[in-house]
Amino acid sequence: MSAKKKEIITKENAVQAVLIADTFDDEFVPISDNLPHALLPLLNKSLIDYTLEFLSLGGIEETFLFCCSHVDSIKNHINKSVKNNEGWTLTMKVNIIVSESCHSFGDCLRDLDAKGLLRGDFVLLEPGTISNIHLLPLIKKHNELTKQDKGAAMTLILQEAGIGSIGRCPREDILIAGSSQNRVLFHKKMGQSNERKINFPLEIFLENPSVSILHNLKDTHIAICSPSVLPLFSDNFDFQTKDDFVRGLLMNEEILGSTVYYHIVRGSQFGGAVTSWRMYQALSRELKNMWIYPLIPNTKRNKIAKKDSVIGEGTKIVDSIVLQSSVLGDHVTVGKNVKIENSFVFSNTKIEDNVTITHSVVGPQCTIKSNSKITAGSILGNSCVIEKDTFVENCLIQANKPEICKESDRLGNKAYRLKISGEEEEEKSIKDLTRKMSRLHIDNYYESESESEEFSESDDDALSYTQSPAPDDTKLFFTEVIDSLTRGFEDNLLCDNLILEINSSRYAYNVTVKEVNFNVIKAILTMSLRQSVGPQYYSYLSRLLSYFAPVLKNYIRNESAMIDCLQAIEDVATLNEELKDKWVMFVLQHFYDKDYVSEDAILDWFSTLDEKTKFHKQVKPFTDWLQEAEEASSSEDE
């Protein structure tokens, strides 16, 4: 067989992917005015570099990169990557498709359908996707699925993620009802709805012997598609997004004759997308902690500083700077007595003396003059100049003067407050307000419960909201431990695997050994409280503790860990006052009999308890028994 003929066959059978480069919204304004979303620096490496590397490692041989804006910048970046022989260029071909007439995700897919470039099943990625998911097995599984169900159009790739997980954005929360074959029966974006209750179609329960209701998932923004997906978009012009597509197929399943399935990835496989500043910071942290391995930032260019910060190439900091949980781009100049916390400073920016930057984003080529303060979710666009002694809080700043500009919006010759479209309208929907406010949440902020409630009728009251309290990393770690242990117990997983998951969570949230010991014990005891107290309760508790014996042994290794364990018992009992005295006695007896805690540790810990508390009274009978047993043993020895 000739080499030319072999090359043609390989191309015909190539595994293909479609990557949409544009977001078609103003989420990243004003930075996106000059910098395309695909080239947004993530730990000083362009977002698209992570995505193409993921596709290459996942087995994709040909990718169609669809661009509608900033085309020249993206083309130049791709050509430079090819010239430099970047890793993905060795195994994958990238074809750039340009169409400036497209105004939505759906328009791009309709244009691709008209061009007839795709030949079979393909991987569909939304803008800003980063992942380490193994794609080839999923493509194969989808192909087998289409043989059983000729109407199978799409398989959504979802990831298991508990509430509070850093990579799970409340605005993107989804609720899915699925069949035993993982066919999507119901799909709803909870984060984009004001509804207080969910109405499920009755027929999904009548027509299916079993239905799973899933809310512990997040969208990876990856889908495996059949060739029928593009014609379906072409035939239905109201399909503007992937969610529109899924919702439309579920509503018109009998008419369109197409179905949607889902696949859940677990363990070390990760998927997500930079869809907002909140997710930008979340994915930065995931990359920094090597949670998306083998995708990693450019370690040759970046320097990891103290207090969880990253410094780009050519950037130097002085001893007087306070730098915490931040990323500095390449060739950033930093003056004396500067404080930068929970922020992102892009390349070629100059920061003069005595400047404070907290919870904000500073775009490329900006100048922040001395004694200025930028805080509370402010975002500065390209080439802004903040004059001396300027205070910037909770707003968007651009360098160019907008068409409509009040004098109060002018902060300098190259700094103007940017009005969000529709901001001055008298009536605002809760969805618009939530989107605008969340735009400024670039720290690890989780929307409070009040955000799901109705806003005040007063616009001033609604707009006075800035940001919700920062979550405690230890609490997030505890939540993940609960999720891991619950799943392990229900699915009868090996405790060794659970220990690996817990240790991974520990490094992700940077908690101390003491906090790990305390929260693991607390998590196991808290799980026991989910079983209603009754005649069988203590047999259930005993079974739970026996099952997790390897976990307990792993984390209670010394006297210090014993104290952590006893403090966890105290914490659970104190927070659940309805627990009977017998519960405390039972748990202490179990831990003592299994040699998890020693007599000396128990007595030392007991001596620190407040005698006036109910918990002290609950523990005292057990410590009295220990002391009596010790005295009796001493008498026998004499």
How does this model look, in words?
Strands 13-14-16-19-22-25-28-30-29 form a nine-stranded mixed sheet, with no helix packed on it. Strands 3-2-1-4-10-6-11 form a seven-stranded mixed sheet. The chain folds into three domains: 264 residues, Spore Coat Polysaccharide Biosynthesis Protein SpsA, Chain A; 119 residues, UDP N-Acetylglucosamine Acyltransferase, domain 1; 165 residues, Serine Threonine Protein Phosphatase 5, Tetratricopeptide repeat. The longest helix is centred in the last third of the chain and has 24 residues. Helix 20 crosses helix 21. It is built from 21 helices and 30 strands. The radius of gyration is 28 Å and the shape is globular. By secondary structure, the protein is α/β, with parallel strands linked by helices.
